[in-house]
Amino acid sequence: MSGAMSGRTVVVLPDLHGRADLLRAAVHRYPEAHFLGLGDAIDRGPRSLETVQLLMDLHAEGRATLLMGNHERMMQEGLRWYRQYQSTRDMTDYRRGMEGFQWWMRAGGETVRREVSPLTLEAFPPLLEAYLAVLRRVVYVTDDGQIHDDLPTAPSVLVSHASPPVQHPRHPNPLSAALWLRPFEGPFPLPESVIYSVHGHTPVPIPTRLGRHLYVDLGAYETGRLAVTELNVQALPKVTVLCGPGRPELGGRYSRFGEPLAAQAEQLPISSPRF
């Protein structure tokens, strides 16, 4: 099938991991679009707080819908227990908060600590807490460009961080599975009315299609390559790879599976090595 969405343009932003420069480039390229963030906007890369601030500004303007990734979920864990401890004063809650906080630190949160000092549960950045409060897990986009939390009757595209929401032995809660599962842990059935699904989480060297599932995380924080994806309910999306400063050769380490998804590359103007 061919054609474009009949409503507003919805552009999916895969895992940014602190690459505020690539986010700015995407906003510049699509000045009228509504952005749908796949999550993992934080840590690992150099400028998590600036990235989150830009996303929150877009959200406040009604120009972005933001999803949770597994890194946001790890960031949330310690804070959630610490907020409970503030009510209960139960040291078990505090211990769980500290364990959750260290889980995030080990998985990438330490890079955020370099931006924010001090970064503790007691001095948690209000911006990051506000960001957590607006995140959704799974959405469906219909041909009119509208974004739904529940499966619509009309044809749609399913968008979530890692996989469709399915019951899985390791993740009995489908909304948890949608944050963590890798392609090789499928198959992931889709409702009949869903044309295809779009995910990040699993880095790939090139945009990749596996059945009706599309994977567009190109490891932007280290490769400098961001696969922005214009959704199209009537056909496969248009994918443009924004190429900024980074080490694209590192993409050669990522898993190869499925088949390539058509994409065009666009070289961004040279900027500071600091990103």
From TrEMBL:
Pfam families to which the protein is assigned, alphabetical: Metallophos
Calcineurin-like phosphoesterase domain location: 9-205
Any single GO BP term: RNA decapping
GO molecular-function terms, A-Z: bis(5'-nucleosyl)-tetraphosphatase (symmetrical) activity; phosphatase activity
SUPFAM superfamilies: Metallo-dependent phosphatases (SSF56300)
Family annotation (Gene3D superfamilies): 3.60.21.10
GO cellular component: cytoplasm
Name of the molecule in the record: Putative phosphoesterase
